[in-house]
Design brief:
- The chain has 4 helices and 7 strands.
- A hairpin with a 4-residue loop joins β1 and β2.
- It is of the alpha+beta class.
Length: about 180
């Protein structure tokens, strides 16, 4: 709900630091850390935070130093993650249309990245989705949001008829999703 989501968290154009201390940076920063933990796992995340604190306590730092520590702790290349979440404005806005295959027990999702073009596209390795029938969750799966595609199609086989699809039902990702049939 920030009024400044059209700016990236790391804004290399702005020279005055005061406008950078805003409702975009603090809440989005918390979301980014939460999502990073989901990408690298609890052990690597907390190991990285401890190493970062130990190495840079009482120092001035830049985001790249934190990225390198987290890459070492997780043994992963996290350039894609930091690039999109720190240097792109906004967040993914997804239009999700779903359909049930009448001849086989499957549900197909058509997921379009609908955020403004200036925000770029996003990569999220595992977007959680729940399938609901008669008010009960009958299955939980994930799909991969891919930055190279404006739209993806994901088919989930073995899921019978459903009457509702919930994308990111627990609100673990910084996304907005409009879901319909």
């Amino acid at each position: 709900r920030s009024e400044v989501i059209d700016r990236p968290m790391v804004d290399t154009v702005e020279r005055d630091p005061n406008p950078l201390l805003n409702a975009n940076v603090y809440p989005k920063g918390a979301w980014v850390l939460h999502m990073l933990r989901g990408v690298v796992g609890d052990s690597a995340f907390y190991r990285g935070v401890r190493d970062y604190y130990r190495g840079y306590r009482d120092s001035s730092v830049v985001s790249g130093q934190f990225q390198r520590v987290m890459e070492r702790a997780s043994r992963q290349d996290l350039g894609w993650f930091f690039q999109q979440w720190l240097y792109q404005p906004g967040h993914p806005r997804l239009d999700v249309a779903w359909s049930v295959e009448p001849t086989a027990p499957s549900v197909t999702l058509r997921v379009r990245q609908a955020q403004p073009e200036a925000w770029g596209r996003w990569e999220i390795p595992a977007v959680p989705v729940e399938f609901v029938r008669n008010g009960e969750v009958v299955a939980r799966r994930t799909f991969r949001l891919q930055a190279r595609y404006a739209e993806i199609v994901a088919t989930f086989v073995g899921i019978g008829p459903v009457d509702e699809v919930r994308v990111d039902p627990e609100g673990t990702l910084l996304i907005t999703a409009a879901v319909g049939r």
